[in-house]
Amino acid sequence: MAQAVKDIPAVDFLKIRKDFSVLDQEINGKPLVYLDNAASSQMPVQVAKRIDDYHRKEHANVHRGIHTLSQKATDAFEETRKKVRDFINADSESEIVYTTGTTDSINLVANSYGGSVLKKGDEIILTEMEHHANIVPWQMVAERTGAKIKVIPVTDSGDLDMDAYKSLLSDRTKIVAVVHVSNALGTVNPVKEITERAHEQGAAVLIDGAQSVPHQKVDVQEIGCDFFAFSAHKMCGPTGFGILYGKKELLEAMPPYRGGGDMIDKVSFEETTYNVPPFRFEAGTPPIAAGIGLGAAIDYLNQIGMDNIAAREQELVEHAVSELKKIKGLRFIGNSDQRASVCSFVIDGIHATDIGTIIDKEGIAVRTGHHCAQPILKRFNVPSTARASFSFYNTKEEVDRLINAIRYAKSFFE
Ligand code: C6P
To answer: 389 CB less than 6 Å from ligand 1?
Structure first.
């Protein structure tokens, strides 16, 4: 992911920032500095307008009506599937399943794939840095099937211990589920290598891409993974919508996860047969407007270019790291060389919540807490961290305001 700052082409990010009207406001009497992008990114006016237009002019249910308005809504909704296919370089649209977000995507795989292949004594490999969304669904299916969970440990720098991973793999391993970019540490994991090793043992691989897809070019065929999950609301799109990529042959062999309308072929009280993927996994009326919104978000990101976005965010995070390092008593939780746009830290003698509360009064929004990743905080022996997470629409001046506000917060405790 790391890209030299000098490689950034002439993209006018200050002009782009004007698309995000939400940023143009005061919080507690100070200009807002929004550095909680890992929790949810902001939406540009182009995406908001597309969703609004749909509601005003195109709304009807999808996949059901032969009437023109329903056809129009269906076409717009299905257009997103093609955009997602191209955005992550999937082989076909039928590999793109609509879900309500990363959490839903992982639950789908754990229940449908995990529930049908796992047997007593089989093993699922996770990492110590997983978000709860990539832990709890596996614990639930492990309990049901008798499978066991093994965990790849994390080194002091916040990297995966790849030697430990290799020694955990065996012919008992059936699934490896790994986060691409850690929301709590910022570490970018070597998902291609992880996938290759797992495949050597015949295990399937799921990548949690919630924090990678918004920040870098992702190519699922290049990674080689079997499943890949992400959420629209972290990539300039709306809440309530997400994607599960799954290899065609795996999706075709998987049983449905939820029952209802749209996921069936024929229904009778004697026997029900199911639709083909991806529709087999999409029961009920979907979040149509949100799906169309994701399509508009992808158009928006493509217009800027994912490589430009990655380079811009790398510049911001490098500036933040070098300035944060100068603050006495500040310790990074996660200090990998392979870091994406997240800085997670603690400061001696100050609770993270106090940092967050004081700097909020200065208009600065960061997340504090366990970031829904309690095991990795336990690994580093801290109950919570303060986390600044960056997007391409942030500025160096905003990073400087963060640094000043942290120094100000610190002064209360000296
Ligand atoms: N992390 C954060 O502040 P959903 O809620 O389904 O859109 O995404 C869940 C999820 C899964 N994996 C990773 C790596 C994530 O970062 C998240 C969401 C947010 O870090 C909210 S807890």
So the answer is: no
